[in-house]
Amino acid sequence: MDRRRMMYGMALASSLFKPGKTRAATAKPAILGGAPLKTEAFPSWPITDDLEDKALLKVLHGGKWNRGNGSQVNRFEQEYAQLMGAKHCLASANGTSALLIALDAIGVQPGDEVIVPPYTFVATINAVLAMSALPVFVDTDPRTFQIDAKKIEAAITPRTVAIMPVHLGGNVADLDAISAIAKKRNIPVVEDACQSHLAEWKGKKVGTFGTLGCFSFQASKNLNSGEGGAVLTNDSAILDRCYAYHNNSRGKSAPGYDFSYVSRGLNLRLTEFQAALLMAQMTRLSKQASNRETNAEHLTKQLKEIPGIRPAEHYDGCTRNAYHLYMFRYDSAQFAGLTRAKFLKALAAEGIPASGGYSPLNKEPLILNTLASRGYKRIYDEKTLQQWRDRSGCPENDRLCSEAVWFTQTMLLGPRTDMDTIATAIRKIQANAAEVARA
User: Fold this and answer.
1) SS3 of 135, please?
2) What tens-digit pLDDT sequence spans the chain (439 residues)?
3) Are strands 318-320 and 200-201 parallel, antiparallel or unpaired?
4) What does residue 157 show for φ and ψ, rounded to 5 degrees?
5) Are 344 and 355 in contact (CB under 8 A)?
6) Interacting residues of 283 by C-beta distance below 8 A, sequence separation 6+
7) Could you give the domains of the chain?
8) What are the start-end ranges of the E strands in 138-271?
9) Do the Cβ atoms of 117 and 147 come closer than 8 Å?
10) Of 336, 394, 291, 300, the residue nearest 8 (C-alpha)
11) Where are the beta strands (DSSP E) in 165-270?
């Protein structure tokens, strides 16, 4: 046995046979015909009770289903703003519409550039493209899975009109560094906090640091109404612009049959049914967030002991991670060369669902095809587009996309023993990694 294999074996033995580790960690993996560790499903989502039934029936029988005629949307906006520590909240049809509203409110136009991360859901980029602006990608910090704030300033040009960090997976981007750059350059910040309900930076809720903060209430989110979104701001004038844009160009004070229009806009309103669902779901939000946080901390302590598993870190300023996702990096070299794809299959066989997360968004055909379109070529000359291509390499993100593993937020809502089972499953796969790789 060569020295490298010997060191691998010693590290593996150290991770598996510390006091408290069970025999289950060395049993035959389920993917090889062994018994799966978890046979009961993780908690389902959404979690509901008669609160949702009563709330929806009240709206149904009240006969006032749309914004303007009912009271649920207004009530939700007031309570969500209070919960988040913001002066104003505007509810919207979904998280993507919240981003559109925010970008319009700060005046993003064709020819402008918006700084974004490459590791995010495509809605972040779609909102920028919908404004016929250029998304300028800044590489990822692989330790935290967040935009690397140290690289933002170098990406700023005279065309830059906004910085749009994403608080990915419930974690928080480096808001101190981002805010300092924004202040120095006089560039507004739009926080994409669509995955980070109740996350905090130095004790203050995210979504309240920038000029605007955006949230999603899509079905997978920690606060769920099937579809829905919200924009937070502390600026009354910006709120007015947001309202008009989401209300088909009509200002907040316009009566029902006033057909005067103050600015460009769309119909991006939330319904009374969705607001009623959100009010019911909010009654459990804080407790669920605490459960996720406690379970994630317990899981992290165990996963840090396993060679080749590196849980996502927090910046020092992050005082609360909302854990919409639990994310870690997987090093196949510490698993006898077992590919990530096979590792995920082996986890699934043990009853532990996981995914490999996002692909490099800056390389998606969506971006390349849009920039090659007739419309974009009319707005941007070839020199500008070539400069964009030259600036768009994100090597750290490329590597992260090949290493990342995700667990969803529902997996953190069960008992602590579920976290033990997850960790044991990973140890079990590692102990048999060479055999799994050959299978």
Assistant:
1) strand
2) 344 444 444 444 444 444 445 567 779 999 999 999 999 999 999 999 999 999 999 999 999 999 877 799 999 999 999 999 999 999 999 999 999 999 999 999 999 999 999 999 999 999 999 999 999 999 999 999 999 999 999 999 999 999 999 999 999 999 999 999 999 999 999 999 999 999 999 999 999 999 999 999 999 999 999 999 999 999 999 999 999 999 999 887 665 667 778 889 999 999 999 999 999 999 999 999 999 999 999 999 999 999 999 999 999 999 999 999 999 999 999 999 999 999 999 999 999 999 999 999 999 999 999 999 999 999 999 999 999 999 999 999 999 999 999 999 999 999 999 999 999 999 999 999 999 999 8
3) antiparallel
4) -130, 175
5) yes
6) 51
7) 3-46+284-357+400-438 (3.90.1150.10), 50-281 (3.40.640.10)
8) 140-141, 146-147, 160-163, 190-192, 200-201, 204-205, 212-216, 229-233
9) yes
10) 336
11) 190-192, 200-201, 204-205, 212-216, 229-233
Tokens of 157: 């040009």
Find tokens 């605007």 and name the residue. 212
